[in-house]
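Entry:
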Amino acid sequence: MKAKRRTTTDNGDTGEDLVLATSISNGEDLAPIVRLAFEMGRPEALLQQLKTVVKKKEVEIEELCKSHYEEFIQAVDELRGVLVDAEELKSELSSDNLKLQEVGTTLLVKVDELLEFYSVKQNVIETIKMCKNCLQVLDLCAKFNGHITDDQFYPALKTVDLIEKNLPTVPVKTLRVVIEKRIPVIKSHIEKKLNSQVNEWLVQIRSSAKNIGQTAIGLAATARQRDEEMLEHQRKSEEHCGPGDFEYSLDIEDINEDGAVKIDLTPLYHASHINKCLGLQEQFHDYYYDNRRLQLSSDLQLSSAQPFVESYQSFLAQIAGHFIVEDRVLRSSGGLSGTEQVETMWETAVAKMTSVLEEQFRHMDSATHLLLVKDYVTLFGAALRQYGYEVAPLFEAMDSSRDKYHQLLFAECKEQIVSIISNDTYEQMVMKKDTDYENHVLSFHLQTTDITPAFPYIAPFSAMVPDACRIVRSFIKGSADFLSHGGHSNFFDVVKRYLDKILIDVLNEALLNAIHSGSIGVSQAMQLAANIAFLELACDFFIRHAAQLCGVPIRSVERPQASLTAKVVLKTSRDAAYIALLSLVNSKLDEFMALTENINWITEEIPENGNEYINEVLIYLETLMSTAQQILPSDALYKVGSGALEHISDSIVSAFLSDSVKRFNVNIVTGFNSDLRVLESFADERFHTTGLSEIYKDGSFRECLLEARQLINLLLSNQPENFMNPVIRERNYSALDYKKVATICDKFKDSPDGLFGSLSNRSNKQNARKKSMDVLKKRLKDFN
């Protein structure tokens, strides 16, 4: 009955119960249904439905059990049999388990040991790895120590970088901390060692700077000599070739001048690179610049223990070496030294050197010393100009000392010239061999002919001439050497001006002092005049020599307008020498002519061979003209001869005009006539033998005696009154003066005084001459 009710109830299930039952039967997920029931707020309904499904399933189970009861009992029996078997199996399993436990215990012990060993192995592997890391760092440390020991700072620094890179892998904190603390100390040590090496290099490079500078200056001197030889070769080629035919040659020498200056900058490069790696590049640059500036400041200080003329080469070479090193550092160190810093140091050095040179030049008293210093300064400038340094201020300082140098040179040359003139023997030079002739004559173009004379050769000048020429030549060279190589391309005009100055103010002045000194005789004055003539000739050599040293073509100075002013001045001095010579000759002649005071002017006898004084005069004139012919040029010889004879003529006329002569007679006039004939014969002979007749064809020495001759002719004339005839006077007595003739005629007594002389010795001819003389005297009185 209950079953029927359940069926009825079951038959009364709602649709929702069927859905739920179907879902459960199918094994579907009831989560959506549960979620929906809760969302709709009807969980009780769902619970009721689930209970209904459970009841339904219980009914089904119960019915199933009723229908299979026997089978179920049989199954239970079988299950009991299985349970017995299971117990047996359990017993066997328990036995086997005990046995397995016994075996497993040993294995577990082994497994535990194995696990322990595995753990140890892992620890060992980790330890080995840690040791390897530590060993790697320690190896780097050892490697670093080796580099430090060998002063290999760059590899040491790279090793430190590797240590820093590998340091995080070091597992030992203590080791890592120690190394971390040591790295800054290590870098500081490297920095100090580098600074120490740089300091050593600075000391070494300073000690080497002088040698570097001397080498560079020596190369500059070699280059200058090579240029001078090339210019000299070119000049000679131009002189020997015609216009348009010049020959030029190019000599190429493979000279690595920069390579000849050996400078080892390796330590500096090394230190600069390592400081760059240390991040201390700017500090190192400042450190280097400060030290080099201090070194330069020390180099620019002159040593008081040594005179400047002995230390200037070392002084300049040291500075040159300093800046050559700086140039090399500037060009090859990659920014270690800046252009502005080098220029600042150079400007400081130039200012100091200029000040030192100007100060030293002011106190120098030797032209040679000044020239040596200037020459070395120009070589210094030439050497550093090759490295790009501005040396113009130094050359300007040299130019400012130009006048001081030439003043010293003038003083030295003046002392030498005055010495050679005062010590000159005024004797003609005797040259025994051709080398003497070449040294004393050809060297200064003093030869008057291109034909080499026979030896021994007696030169027309004394030793003073070649000695003075050597002094002037050395002056030219000294002047040209000072003015050359100073940045001036054309300094010939300056050399020429100074050459004129020394010839005029020194040489010519010394010659004039000698001329007017009053301590020279006729032979000395004659030799001096001849010397001046040859010095005048040497002026052409001087101007050509100056042009040659200045690199000026010789042909450009051979024009008349290019000649020296001194040549004209020397010609004037030569004329002054001739005047002094003639004055001395006249003074000497006056000594001989003074013998006329001993003449008996009213002698009763005619002197047979003339008057005695004439012999002395002839001997002196012979000596004078012979010497003058050997020494003096033709024009001077003519001046000396004509001047002496004119003075004799004037002296004869003056003798008649002398107040000591009150009266004279015809006998003394006849004696003077004989004297004049001897003099005229001598004059004609000398005029021809000296060759002057070929030069002065319209003149003669006889004309120099014209006044005395016309006076004697007038006094011996039979008709002296013809003197008043203008035509006759112009033809026969043009050299006579009215007043002189009147004075002399007043003293003239036609016949000598003697016992009965006026009665016994007078002839008609004498009477006529006396009357004519009286007429002349009267007419002269009337004329006056």
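Confidence is low (pLDDT under 50) at residues 1-12, 242-259, 753-762.
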